[in-house]
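Translate sequence into structure tokens.
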Amino acid sequence: MIITIDVDTLALTLAHNKVEKKFTDLNIEYTINNYDEFRSFNYTKDAQKDFDKYYKYFYNIIIENQKK
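Result follows.
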């Protein structure tokens, strides 16, 4: 059985988990709650910068391994 996972979704999930762990370990709030929509949030500036960096990193690794 072959399981297909979307590259964007996987990279997004891995990056979010990395940011969440880093900021939780440092005991720093990393989200800004947005109550206009149900279960919505935005990252703080520092967390967004880290998220973008990790997202690009994981995305590139996944694409490289996909070509092999």
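Note: DSSP finds two helices and two strands in the chain.
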